[in-house]
Amino acid sequence: MTSAIDPTAHTSTASTPTASGHRDGETACGGCGTSRRAFLGRGAVIGAVGVATTVGLTGCTEDLQAEASAPSQHPGGSPTPALPAADLPVGGQASVTIGGRTLLLHRESEDTVRAFSAVCTHQGCTVAPGQNRGQPTFACPCHGSHFDVATGVPYGGPAQKPLTEFTASVDGDMLMVTI
Ligand code: FES
């Protein structure tokens, strides 16, 4: 099933991630904690039709470079609200910022969601939901790597490693990510 979401339809609140580009002062490189002032930050929700999010091409911090070489599975932490389930229909993708970290979500089904780091495994730029030949993808703006939205596995472009996956779940009316 495909669906389209207008990322401009959301508004920012203190407790609900919203759809937009980067927060003020955040670099383009994965949102690795350059700003930790908000528990939940802004994000972008993208359906299969796709709307390009705002991404920059600025340089990356050492933290982000380290994350770019991180294991394929995030070691874990605490389940954290990421996005209201109603804001991400089955088949849709979203970019959300939680605790200063930008994550990519893919709603597999009513009961399952996948979450990945937005840090490109090539050189650490910020990957965002997009479209590739009419199909949803997670795309890197720097050198053209694409990642499968369901697995985080790269295809095309120079990236060789999958995006780091985070444990994610649908908990009632909220999508949760363990960070
Ligand atoms: S940093 Fe993403 S493709 Fe190079």
UniProtKB/TrEMBL annotation:
Keyword set includes S-adenosyl-L-methionine: no
Its needed co-factors are: [2Fe-2S] cluster
Task: Identify the Pfam families for this entry.
Answer: Rieske (PF00355)
- Region annotation (Disordered) ranges: 1-28, 65-85
Q: Name one GO cellular component term.
A: membrane
Every copy of the Rieske domain together lies at 80-177
Feature: compositional bias, Low complexity? 7-20
Sorted alphabetically, the keyword list is: 2Fe-2S, Dioxygenase, Disulfide bond, Iron, Iron-sulfur, Metal-binding, Oxidoreductase
Oxidoreductase: is it a keyword of this entry?
Answer: yes
> Which Gene Ontology MF annotations are present?
2 iron, 2 sulfur cluster binding; dioxygenase activity; metal ion binding; monooxygenase activity; oxidoreductase activity, acting on paired donors, with incorporation or reduction of molecular oxygen
- What role is this protein assigned? Iron-sulfur subunit of the cytochrome bc1 complex, an essential component of the respiratory electron transport chain required for ATP synthesis. The bc1 complex catalyzes the oxidation of menaquinol and the reduction of cytochrome c in the respiratory chain. The bc1 complex operates through a Q-cycle mechanism that couples electron transfer to generation of the proton gradient that drives ATP synthesis.
- Name the record gives this protein: Cytochrome bc1 complex Rieske iron-sulfur subunit
Source species taxonomy: Bacteria, Bacillati, Actinomycetota, Actinomycetes, Micrococcales
